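Researcher: I'm preparing a figure for a lab meeting and need a structural model of a single chain. I don't have an experimental structure, so a prediction will have to do for now. The sequence is pasted below. Please return the structure as tokens so I can convert it later.
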Amino acid sequence: MALIECVANVSEGRRREVLSACEAAVVSAGARLLDVHADGAHNRSVFTFAGTPDAIERAAVALFEPALAAIDLRTHTGVHPRIGAVDVVPFVPLDGATMADCVAIARRVGAAVAARYHLPVFLYEDAASTPERTPLEHIRRGQFEGLAEKLTRPEWRPDFGPAVPHPSAGATAVGARRLLVAFNVNLATDRLDVARAVARAVRQSSGGLPFVKALGLSLTDRGIVTAEAARHGVHVLESEIIGLVPASALTDEAARAFKVAGWSDQLVLENRLRATEDQAWRT
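Model: Understood. Here is the structure written out token by token.
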């Protein structure tokens, strides 16, 4: 039986009732909810869920209803770049699934939510319709605030939906990609220029490490900055896993070296899959 993962990013990380409604929508649609990572400073949450192709498609579409009903980007604040209330919806092939399966699901989900909610949808990564739309950062450039102007350009006509932003929900990016490890590194400084310099040095797009993407952001509630690596003589306070990681990506020893806060075997994708499978069997 094919298994597909979805790692949906929603522009809400503070209101528990909104997150609970999104969780319920995913589970009611038949997917296995593996993890919810909510971040108040970013005002963003990552929902990781898995299931059969049919279940994952239903769950991804279902997530939009509670999210769009509760999130208004006209009043949204948070440090993470975003274009939509449901900002990013990537599908990832796991056991028995192929990238082609995920591309097909991305296209069906994109078409469905565009039609139902009059929402502009961009396809990205392996599902992208043009090379320019493959990197997510190209789609997100300008954010929600610059979306209306961006959609007037012929080269940025959405793959599905209207060429105008949804008034409160903006747009969304739906894609297909391989497994990705997302984490924050908190630096012991309030200098945003240092974090941005670090991010620029390590990310692939500016000549850094292959396959690495990085941003330098300010965490004003803690008086520190966040980046994806630490240099410039500034020491690392801690790092933080966003969502789940495959077992092959991070050993216990590496987690200690990276100062991963709250590290446990429950942050490992395979372990969460086994745990939810066992729960389903018992019920």
